[in-house]
Write a structure and sequence with these properties.
Blueprint: E1 2-6, H1 8-17, H2 20-30, E2 34-39, H3 40-48, H4 55-65, E3 69-71, H5 75-86, H6 92-104, E4 107-109, H7 113-116, E5 123-125
Parallel strand pairs: 1-2, 1-4, 2-3, 4-5
Length: 135
């Protein structure tokens, strides 16, 4: 089964105007074509947003997070993300997200593809109606 890690940008798009990407991922997961993952650090980023002051937005995000398996940041992921930063492949929290993808051998669903383009071995997921293994 295809594993997909979802980045903050997909959720932000959902909050702002609805995300075709998140809708497709949810559909693929409901058909058991993909496993969805979210690094817990993404939950930190989501809760830091001002829009989370609104109960309606919090409820939406809580609902959308439901089918996601959580990825805890362990020492292996922490070291891998530090290495990605040291090698200048990616910065900050994005390094943790990339390391989670590499550790899980998962594709990354993001709207910020430029942030991750230097990460060796990282595969991106792109929205498509026909094939859950797209890259």
């Amino acid at each position: 089964m295809v594993k997909i890690v979802v980045d903050t940008s997909i959720f932000i798009e959902e909050i702002r105007k609805g995300s075709l990407e998140l809708a497709e991922l949810a559909e693929l997961a409901s058909r058991e074509e993909v496993d969805l993952y979210i690094p817990v650090i993404i939950i930190t980023e989501l809760w830091a947003g001002r829009s989370m002051n609104k109960a309606k937005v919090r409820a939406l995000v809580e609902k959308k997070l439901g089918p996601f398996k959580r990825i805890e940041v362990n020492e292996k992921i922490a070291r891998a993300s530090g290495e990605l930063i040291r090698k200048e492949q990616v910065k900050g929290i994005d390094a943790i997200v990339a390391a989670c993808c590499l550790e899980k051998r998962a594709r990354l669903a993001t709207l910020n593809t430029k942030h991750f383009e230097k990460v060796k071995g990282l595969k991106l997921w792109k929205r498509s109606i026909t094939d859950p293994e797209r890259c």
